[in-house]
Amino acid sequence: MMPVRRDLRFALPPERACDWHQQGSHVTHFFNALSLLFPAGERFFMDSVRNYRDRIHDPVLKKQVLGFIGQEAMHTREHIEYNDLLQNAGLPAHKLDRRLAMFLNLNRKMPKSFQLAMTVALEHYTAMLAGLLLEDDTRVGGSVEGYAQMWTWHALEETEHKAVSFDVWNTVVKPGLGRYLLRTGTMLTVTLVFWLIVFDYHVRLLIADRKRGGHLRGMGRVVKFLYGPRHGVFPGIAMEWLRFFKPSYHPWDHDNRAQLTRIDGLVAAVDSANAANPAALKASRRGVRAVA
Ligand SMILES: [Fe+2]
Ligand SMILES: [Fe+2]
């Protein structure tokens, strides 16, 4: 699997930044909370892999690392603009982004192997959530087009490069019990911290947007979206999360590459939407510039 850098732009209607999801503003803010994690988070991922670039000699893996960095750089750029729209809508997006960056900067003082283990664990998270989004049409189906396209694009590319940091890990860290314990122990820590931050950011966005109202029904939808037995996020990723603890685990054990056949169609749809309505793309950029 060779990750390809795709330079895509999305028309995100600024006035829908707080309620673009088909299931309303409370579920929208769950995705928005995730979006706030990407700029600082993905820079951390890129740097933790770059730390080991000199030790990767296999030409295929070298190319995959370049593709991985290229994709994450595009995701960072697009989520910075997305988050600017949230800031423009009166949400504390910049403050929360800076807070995460400060926290991750503390982690940059930790051993490089720990930083890479964090990336491997968090890439497993992005791959699990991406897989769920791609396989279950209730995740972003029926939502405002630009936002749904952007999340689908991100999910497809996370799937495409899901094994890269793991293959770097297996190449540069000495095999054995120590490697297994570092990988799985880091996953346990990451799981706790990741969901605490997502929960905290989600609540802060909901509080900042509290004037919108409809909280009882909105929270009911969030609970169903996250915990519902049929389509809930947590039941949906539970088995995949457990699989990470198998000593022989590899990200492609869950072979969902069939989803990737959607990429070309999505790129064509985004390009034609932008060509048909350049004003929508400009409006999205104007929203960003209003903050800058
Ligand atoms: Fe990404
Ligand atoms: Fe990623």
Mean pLDDT comes to: 95
Query: Ions, cofactors, ligands: which are bound?
Result: fe (ii) ion
Rg, nearest Å = 19 Å
SSE string, helices as H and strands as E = HHHHHHHHHHH
Number of discrete helical segments? 11
What overall form do the CA principal axes indicate?
Answer: globular
Total strands: the figure is 0
Low-confidence stretches: none
Strand fraction equals under 5%
Q: Report the end-to-end length measured between terminal Cα atoms.
A: 38 Å
Structural class based on helices, strands and sheet pairing = mainly alpha
Q: What number of domains?
A: 1
Helix content: 55-70%
The largest pleated sheet is described as: none
Organism: Paraburkholderia phenazinium
Keywords: Membrane, Transmembrane, Transmembrane helix
Protein name: Metal-dependent hydrolase
InterPro entries: UCP07580
Architecture overview:
- The chain has 292 residues and is mainly α.
- The chain has one domain (22-270).
- 70% of the residues lie in helices and 0% in strands.
- It is built from 11 helices and no strands.
- The protein has helices at residues 25-50, 59-88, 93-107, 112-135, 145-160, 164-172, 177-208, 215-227, 233-243, 263-276, 278-291.
- It is globular and about 55 Å long.
- The mean pLDDT is 95.
- InterPro entries: UCP07580 (IPR016516).
- This is Metal-dependent hydrolase.
- Keywords: Membrane, Transmembrane, Transmembrane helix.
